[in-house]
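Hi R.,

Here's the chain you asked about this morning:
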Amino acid sequence: MPFSPQKRAGTLNGILFVAIFAAAATMIADLSFIKNLGISPLVVGIVLGIFYANTLHNKFPSAWESGITFSGKKILRFAIVFYGFRITFQQIAEVGMEGFMVSLIMLSTTFILGTYLGQKIFKMDRDTSMLTASGAAVCGAAAVLATEPVLKSEEHKAAIAVSMVVLFGTIAMFLYPALYSAGVFVGMDDKTFGIFVGGTIHEVAQVVAVGGAYGKEAADAAVIVKMTRVIMIAPMLIVLGIYLSYLANKHGTAGGGVKLVIPWFAVYFIGMTGLSLIHI
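And the predicted structure, written out as tokens:
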């Protein structure tokens, strides 16, 4: 147990270390150069974590590992739950059925096709394919980290998925405005372009950066469609948990079934979003 008398001090030190790490990532992401690229503190933190794991990892006390693991497994899930406060059902309603359907179609087709193509065409394993597809379908690195505990995958697979969604999301952030300005997207007005940006670019910060460059109408449409995709991570993870349990039972022994896996933090995420309807 991480908070047993023998491990309590090391666990607290590990949590404090992660908090300092997170504060450093937030400060770096706030630098004008990084902010202009639309790179979120989460992505900066992941890059710092990769650097730490490959250089300084063995320089710190092993007793801190319990706190670092607790932060990555438990505190991260609490953070995802509280992220629901950033989204309201009113925001989703404002973009209309058009924006909602774009979000739904993009999420479902990207996840299904990404998982299938990742395994059949690019010969990746199932977990890496699903993690990458979830990041591309929903909200980049945050979706990858939210999907990881549902799949119970190895940590290095999440790192691979994060690298891919950040790379291609960054490419899209520069490519889409260039194509739009060049008139390649024929027939698109600013609002439609905003919906397209919100439905296809991975990171929230990147969506804000691209949509904001084309006025308030494009920015509002982009952000609301993006937030609609973000809130859909909860039902996606619940369906994924049910599907994985079904597969485990189907291929398991006849003598016993596998317990249904429901990512409760995803359910609580929806609950936090619902609290925005309450006006105190």
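Residues 253-258 have pLDDT under 50 and may be disordered.

Let me know if you need anything else.
M.
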